[in-house]
Amino acid sequence: MSIRPIRSSGGHSCPVFPSSTFSSTPAPTRHATSTSNHDLRLATLCHHARAGRDLYFRSDHQRLSVIMRHHYNLGMLFLEQAQTHAARPALRFAESDVRYEELLDLVAALANFLIECELKRGDVIAIAHTKDRMSYALMLAAIRLGVPYFNIDVASPQSRNDSILATCAARLLFVDNFNDLVAMQELCHDRDCAVIALADAALTPTTDDQWREQEARMRDVDSASIAYIMFTSGSTGTPKGVAVTHQNVLHFIQWGRDRFGITPDDNFANLSPMYFDNSVFDFYIALFSGASLTPVHRRLLNAPGELVAFVATMECTIWFSVPSLLIYLVTMKAMTPTALLRCRYFVFGGEGYPKVELVKLHRMYGSQATLVNVYGPTECTCICSAYDLSDADFQELDGLPPLGRLNPNFDHQILDNDGREAELGELCLIGPNVAAGYFNDLQRTALVFVTLTEPGRFMKRSYRTGDLVRRDRGQLFFIGRKDNQIKHMGYRIELEEIEHGLMKLPGVNQAAAVYLRSGAAFGKIHGFVASTEALDERQLLNQLPVYLPDYMIPSRIVVIDKMPKTPNGKIDRQRLASLLAEPRT
User: Fold this and answer.
1) More reliable by pLDDT, 346 or 120
2) Total-model pTM
3) Where do runs of H (alpha helix) occur along 155-243?
């Protein structure tokens, strides 16, 4: 393997692929007629790799079959899927597909590279993932060897990423886009973390001996091993790294297959960035079920017409995104009843989807596809409940759709303020999808991850979500956040209730409320509404008492064109608060 070293300031050196070749962002057209140098190199790699390994598979087929009956880790499950669906497309780009057999060869070559870097089981790697095929393969290679990975957002402030690297003590940081290389080298300048420019030009075929070594390491990965680390915002200002195990994800994959009836003919639109929890649904359920995954690059998310056209051209059957994206596409008239005829599921989660907006999507696609509202914290492996929408859900347009019933592999408790079980209170999730905890953070882990001792749940793991829910005939309904409660004018108020009231005002597409104090003064409630119409703030305030009691009326309503979003696509409340300090125009 032709390699070159990049040396970090900490003195650590590691073999590095040449960075002369990177995949460009695919245009929204399908099956270009020309064959790229990348595809020729990939074909050569795959041909030589399989020539030797196929003989190994045949000679050892009986032993492999026994192993594959027991998928106690994700590497085994992916290997079985890649062998079973070898000629089918795994990754689908505008210019070409990557078949499962090709992807497996890339995985094996990258696993060899990780072994050459002397990575051991439990060592952590970071990936600056821009949805290049090499980064997907690298995730699978790490899984194969029991090396936890996390995807890093290169656009995040350096201080935040520095905190993340410190938490994980990542040994290697991989970059799949040359434009990000310098920034990541600066990030790792004072760390013992080598930056590696990913490119496939120097990959060499995997020999039989190398394959046997990889298989031996794969068998050593137990179900309690960490598969990936997903970072979420922390109340202290330091991001928390949720450590998700192989067992967690195996249960999640099985649920997803059954719940959505996934077959190899399905094609997932990978809309979410890979550092965002929603991407877990796309990546794992698609590639570990023999289905296809279509990467959607960030540029398209700001071009609504191109985005919908791309997903339609690629014939995606499964859509999963935050509601904000769907609301945006509907508002911009990019979504039309005939635009996405192949989609059989529109799945949305990560934030509430007001029914007054959701009904627009239902009218477009309710007859051809199933609309599913999903809920689940990162700490419980992406999704823990799902609810299929029907016409009956839109007889009233107030509020949000139900969270639905919990997945079969979950138990739960709803605890009131005194810690007693109730029909309304904080949701605590129990079961095999509950993550191991926060990586290298025992203190914050102990606050919300609890080992139960009561009869019937003895030694089971529980996660306190902080979400307030109501249970009605087995269905769960979201009420608000435990930590979004304020005390104003002597009243306890959930900000979500104010937001629901704002959403009832004519012309409002999205709404948010923030509560701000200035020194020792009483706090003030501020409302924000996004609309494509020219709304008058004073008129909105005059209309609001119809929907809210006087102590919930904001001191001011600010009309904006579009809600600011975090990198994960959720409403950026800090940015909203900063708007109040800007001069009014």
Assistant:
1) 346
2) 0.79
3) 158-168, 181-187, 208-219
